[in-house]
Amino acid sequence: MIIWILLIIVPVLLGLYAQMRVMSAYRKNVEIPSRRGITGRQAAAAVMESAGIYDVEIVEVEGMLSDHYDPSNKRLALSPDNYHGSSLAAVGVAAHEAGHAIQHQVGYSMMTLRQSLVPAVQIASPIAGLLCGFAIFLIGGAMGGLILKIAIAALLVVALFQFVTLPVEFDATARAKRQLVNLRIVDQDEMEGVNETLDAAALTYVAAFVASLGQLLHLVLMLTGNRRDE
Fold it and tell me: Other C-beta atoms within 10 Å of 8: how many?
């Protein structure tokens, strides 16, 4: 019971905390205008141009915090508040996504590895989600062991992808923070709001990896327990 709490319940609680923290930080700092009034779109463009990137399209997409960089199509997508807004949250998020564009341009190894895992994780993720839901009902036998092995293999791919994602996100955030100050998009004393927003967002990636790792270890323990019972 204690192991189940540590491997499943604690990661779930961490994930909920991370989500609440990122929403709280974003909602707070999206209301704080940056001193120079530069919009998220302008900030993203400035950060990319400083790295010699002129061929990435910046587009507006619907949704809250739906911001992302698509390396396949060289497209940087910003949610409405971050595309048009000039808040500390908007310029922080936009610069972060521009950091991914810079990673793509310079061939950042962890981003390259992450992209190579995308096809595998697109297959593994739904399999892991489906089979892990049945794991608690598996009590042994050849069929139960086979399903557990498939679930473990799929979840291992997902956990690896999330692990590789961590340095990619941390590096993009570090690039964003440096460039926001270097390009005078924000002043140093405004970085507190930017840091709060981006650091909270980074925690969600940590929480996702911890949740997958906990679930993976739980399934491995179930498999080894089944083998001892046979």
Answer: 16
- CA-wise closest residue to 100 among 211, 198, 210: 198
The tally of domains found in the chain comes to 1
Task: Give me the domain span that covers residue 127.
Answer: 2-229
What is the Cα–Cα distance from 30 to 200, expressed in whole angstroms? Answer: 14
Residue 140 pLDDT: 54
Q: Which are the catalytic amino acids?
A: 97
User: What is the model's pLDDT at position 129?
Assistant: 85
Among the residues of the chain, which ranges form H helices? 2-4, 10-29, 40-50, 80-84, 88-106, 109-134, 141-182, 191-229
Distance between CA 38 and CA 35 in Å, rounded?
8
CB 45 within 8 A of CB 91: no
3-class secondary structure, 175: helix
pTM attached to this predicted model: 0.89
Tens of pLDDT, residue by residue over 16-64, are: 999 999 999 999 999 999 999 999 999 999 999 999 999 999 999 999 9
